[in-house]
Amino acid sequence: MPTSPPPSPNAASLTPRAAAGLLARCTSRAAAAALHARLLRCSRAFFRSPYLANCLGAAYSRLGAAPSAIALLRAVARPNVFTSNILLSGNLGSGLLEDARRLFDGMPQRDAVTYNAMLSGYVGAALPNEAFRLFCSMREHGVRPTGFTFSIVSSAVASAHHSQQLHAAAVRHGLAHLDAVVSNALIDMYRRIGLFQYAAHVFSCMEEPDVTSWNSVMSAYKDQALSGTVFDCFRSMRSKGFSVDGFSVSTVLSTCSDVKDFAKGDQMLALCVKMSFLTNSIVCSAVIDFLCLSERLSDAVQLFRGMPTWDSEPCNALISGYAKGGLMEEALSLFAASIRNGVVPTEFTFASVLGWSSCFGLMEQGTQIHCLVCKLGFQDDVIVSTALTDMYCKLGLTRHARKIFRAVVAKDLVLWNTMLLGLLQNGRGKEALGIFRRMLKCGIQPDRITLFGALSACSLEGLVAEALDILTLFKDTYRIMPSLEHYACVVDVLCRAGMLREAVNFVENKLLEFAAATFSNILEACIIQGNTGMAELVAEKMVMRKSRSSLPYIVLAHIYGARCKWEKMAGVWRSMENQRAKKAQSCSWLCIKNHIYVFKSEQILHHGKGATYEVLDLLFWDMMDQPKKSEGLDCLQLFPDYP
To answer: Where are the PPR repeats (predicted)?
Structure first.
């Protein structure tokens, strides 16, 4: 980069116009400073009018020397609106938002450029409400908004009411359907806040949509899981002569991954190769994700290795692919290698690695990644904080999870739900209910996951009345209708409270269509509580409904056998065989250093061979030596084949 101004006329022919042209061509702060010094040496008369001072201040601001621009323009004898606008941009560029606002309030004249600069400052400082209030003030003072104004404000709008007000203003000023930039901003705004129908309406009213418009509306359809409409849009886009770009292809390819349409995904992959899109990091990451999902991990690795440079998006995709395939060691190795290659991790990188580390119980690696998060300054990011909270909850370290949760200032719904479910996983029902109540007090709109967490917390604590109250609250206040999983939680609440008859009546009255699935929970509760009479009743109901689970047949067979009802017992075994009922398979896993060992129930010997069972024998005999804490019915003796 040059360190001196470009060749210029001699001092005699150096006019303000020529000097302004030289300033516009300066590419470094040193060049602008050198030309500034030369102008001062030639004659201070150059700066009697604000024209050249404005040009010099604009050059300093453009080249990242905002303090120099501010010092220069504050000394201008007769400033005009251009001077104030450049000074305002300089203050905002230096992060002096309050100084900029004081300057803005003291300006005798304000134009659209003035308001746009101040709006950009508020949006950049994450103050959306201030930005919207300033936009309303701009219209009240009769300053006509530009297309850039609507683009700025739309990126800050976060409520349905404000979005509709902004859209109405754009229509009133004739920009909503004629200006493609404004229309695209409105589509993206509606997509971001979840008003999909409005986004589609804006697109349908556009007179001349461009590629960005098609991409925006396809993203909106994708967010609504309308995969067929995404494919239709892509075909219409190509048939109308629009040239698709990397964003278009990545959106469609991600949709193929979401719905596991591998045939269309292969077609998109061929199009990417044909149009040389694989050099685009966003497209490449979508392709890697698709290949991993379609169980072609080796092809994804080969594509990644063929990339000329590493980027964060493809690294994230392959790390996630490794982790989903159970190759956590490879995922962590790639994560470390990407950092060594100068790839700065993003919040999604950390979320992926932390999420899968917690699933495999890799506490040491997870805490090391937490240290890296703090070192790189990601601890305030809500996505990373959510991943850390989830990791520590899955590792049983709820104290660390609560500390991270409390440190987040702007908690979103996902973080609240993560903390709520994390406490439940660790058996802390009362704390989970406390989190639920705090969430509602903070004005967070709950969802179905929140309802599931709240009901599960009531189940842990045996709070029947409170569970029914929460169910009513969600239906009446938040208009969230419970689904099968929520009613199953209510059944579990009744069972834990010993209200087995009420649980059966609840299923027959509310969940008759899903009775088979929910009766299994009741039957397990009957076994645990030793209520053989109710266990027989529920098992008979399940056998009458031709259950495909082996549990009711095993329970009935042992009950009939204990009463010497051999014919009924044989009939149950024949019914089980005719229904081809299968015993549920389960497994346990154990992480030792860098290896994860999986133990299935039907395995006799596995890693460690007899040594594992020798340890289990020692534990068993140690348990047998302990005094019995209760004299209740031993359900394992009653049902020895219960899985």
So the answer is: 111-145, 210-244, 311-345, 412-446
